[in-house]
Amino acid sequence: MNIVFDFGGVVFRWHPASFLARVWPHRVADLEQGATVAEQFFENYGGDWGAFDQGLIDADTVIQRIAARTGWPEAEVAQVLAAVPDELQLQSDTAALITELKQAGHRLFYLSNMPEPYADHLEQAHPLREWFEAGVFSGRVKHSKPRTEIFKIASERFGLAPEACAFLDDHPANIEAAHALGWQALLFTTAAQARQDLSALMR
């Protein structure tokens, strides 16, 4: 089987509400408030952050835009961006699943919405080339999920027809977009659930 992993929230930790509670304790008192602030900051990965995800603007520009839009000081916005690499911790249960799937002979790939500075960090911090045959980062191809273009780019880069790919992602909109293009897409909640869902596909 050809299995394509999303990164944030699947392979690497990404939980904006708790992340912002740690980085901005003076602004975020609890997870509920963290979720509200995350909506303002990341705009559901559209707007300013979406442009950063797609590599259309750099880190300095997204800091300026978020500060101008929200009124938060640029230094505080920059603090959040600087803290993202530490947030992207490898999730041990998913790492175990990756090892298990590779040992079973499955082909593994990745398709991630990831600004280029964080893509660089992940490549330097983890043996991505050992885990995956190939991958696509949004910041490098100037397109992001759930848009059609990035799925087409991934399919071409992997040399696979969409229906030959099992895609794991934690965002329903990305799953819906992948399904519409013929991918076998599975909503990721936990590595244990993903293992069960993939086993069902293999039957």
Automatic annotation (TrEMBL):
Pfam families named in the record: Hydrolase
Name of the protein in its database record: HAD family phosphatase
InterPro entries: HAD-like_sf, HAD-SF_hydro_IA, HAD_sf
Taxonomic source organism: Roseateles albus
NCBIfam families recorded: HAD-SF-IA-v3
PANTHER family cross-referenced by the UniProt entry: ALPHA-D-GLUCOSE 1-PHOSPHATE PHOSPHATASE (PTHR43611), FLAVIN MONONUCLEOTIDE HYDROLASE 1, CHLOROPLATIC (PTHR43611:SF3)
